[in-house]
Amino acid sequence: MESISYAYGTNHFDNDRELQAVLRHFWPASQEQWPRLQEFGAWAGRDVYEACYHIDHDAPPVLVAHDLDGHRIDRVRLSPSERSVLSQSAWIASPPYQHQGWPFHYALLYLLGDPGIGCILTITGQTAYALHKYGDDSIPGKDAIISHLLSGAAWGATWMTESQGGSDLGANETRATFDGEVWRLFGDKYFASGAGLTDYAITTARPDGSQPGPKGLGLYLLPRLTRQGTLNFQVRRLKDKSATRAVPSGEVELNGSEAYLIGQANHGIYYTLENLTVSRLANAVVAMATGKKAHFEVLERVARRHSFGATLQNHPLIRRDLTDFAVRSAGGLALAFYGVQKFDAAWTDRPPYTDRYHAARFVTHLAKNRTAEHAAAMTAMGMELFGGLGFLEEYAVSRWHREALITPIWEGPSNIQALDFLETVTRHHAHQAVLEELHAYLTHAGTHAAHLAQETLDNSLHHLQAMSGREAQWHAKNDLRAIADATQVALLYDMAEDQGERYAKLADLYATKFLEHQEYPFWADTDQDIWGGVVDE
């Protein structure tokens, strides 16, 4: 791996000043866990890096339909490398249930940094989340299942998507019929991550007699095996994907599959949306981690490569691109962990939810949408700065762009994020408490950029609230992006209070580029603390 990746073999925690600063600011207790984060960062930069490259290029999961005796098993065969990484990282789902908080979980997920492996861990954690929070004693062995999911003895999944509806859960047609002992599910799940690996999935289905639309959905636990030990569902095939190959995604057929209702049948859509909040934050964190992987590769590349008589990093345009990496990395990661912080304070809330829970949802939509855009831009620039080598699959950097491109799609693409975000504003007024907080940060900063961010927040939210129906939907995505950008400016200014002047400079740069839509100012060319790297002049 040393010959194809500059970042391989490095400690991804020690080398990530942005992560360290964000954790100090948004999770003050994090330094108690720094030894574990450092140990995990060393493992992620070596074993995980190598294993995930190997899985992607040489050894993706393979579906095995039958065993030697001809029995249908629909199980995936994993490479030894993938089994090892999964078994050693399964524990990262546990901290929230051990009173160590969601920031610890998401920091570990960020360090792991691989969307495919991260997906397996996230959907397993979501399964445990639903059972922990809403499962009752009517689910046989519930506590043991949770324990197995959190230890790596079993793997979970979230199977919601159906071919006719996609992101429109209200269009789901899978039926649930109670036979007097268990629920029976009939239908197809079209994009089932973890297919062939999963031991327990949570899935949506419509109980007989329930109302149409999303409020008619229940949430069910779907074991891989029936009570008699036979296969409970069938995997039709695995998907042929351009990336995230470590997670087997397939199509699952439910033909009278045994299932157990989680919580109240008429609250299934609320439980499902809660689980989406968990995974949307994971999406935000892993998007920024993927962008950072490209950033690590680029920093070393531009320090080694020469052109036109100088090291690449000494050319103004390269420093401009490195500045863009730094601004996006700092702003996006701050936004992601601001969402994590809000969710950590509200995750025990149940329907009907409190204002703090709706505020967490509001920030989650901002984070999920904008970090995915940052990741795609950062990884694309990483490929460009490597030139022709960046487009070759044999080297590490090209994979990060392929991996990044799923993050705008997973857990609801930008249009879905915009619609859900709009609902938090117009129906729940979730923005009000967040707006007060952000205004305080910006007022304290008192700069031109801070004033511009305040105006952007106020004008964009007023714009959305002044419209209704189709017109509000038309503008929702653009206003979401503007609010997310202004939020990042505010958060960077607040980080400057305890993490140093660099973050005030990053706030100014972010505002110039993404609020004023102007080029980064030339002063950054001589500010090595902003763009990074080592000057060799």
How large a portion of the residues is in β-strands, by DSSP E? 5-15%
Instruction: Work out the radius of gyration.
Output: 23 Å
Give the N-terminus to C-terminus distance in angstroms: 30 Å
Number of helices: 16
Helix content: 40-55%
Kindly report the spatial arrangement of strands forming the biggest sheet: 4-5-9-7-6
Structural class by sheet pairing and helices: alpha+beta
Tertiary shape: globular
Mean residue pLDDT: 96
- Uncertain segments are none
The number of E-state strands comes to 11
Q: What is the helix/strand order? A: HHEEHHHHEEEEEEEHEEHHHHHHHHH
Task: Report the biggest beta sheet as strand number plus sense, adding barrel if it closes.
Answer: 5 strands, mixed, barrel
Family: Belongs to the acyl-CoA dehydrogenase family.
Keywords: FAD, Flavoprotein, Oxidoreductase
Domain Acyl-CoA dehydrogenase/oxidase C-terminal: 266-420
InterPro entries: Acyl-CoA_dehydrogenase-like, Acyl-CoA_DH_CS, Acyl-CoA_Oxase/DH_mid-dom, AcylCo_DH-like_C, AcylCo_DH/oxidase_C, AcylCoA_DH/oxidase_NM_dom_sf, AidB_N
Notes on the structure:
α7 (268-304) runs parallel beside α9 (355-385). The chain is globular, with a radius of gyration of 23 Å. The protein is of the alpha+beta class and 537 residues long. It has a 5-stranded mixed beta barrel. Strands 1-2 form a two-stranded antiparallel ribbon. The chain contains 16 helices and 11 strands.
What's this, in brief?
With 537 residues, the chain is α+β, with helices and mostly antiparallel strands. The chain has helices at residues 17-26, 34-57, 80-89, 102-112, 115-134, 142-151, 268-304, 316-346, 355-385, 396-404, 414-426, 431-445, 448-465, 469-499, 502-515, 528-531; strands at 62-66, 72-77, 156-159, 175-178, 183-193, 200-207, 218-223, 234-238, 249-261, 306-307, 310-311. It has 16 helices and 11 strands.
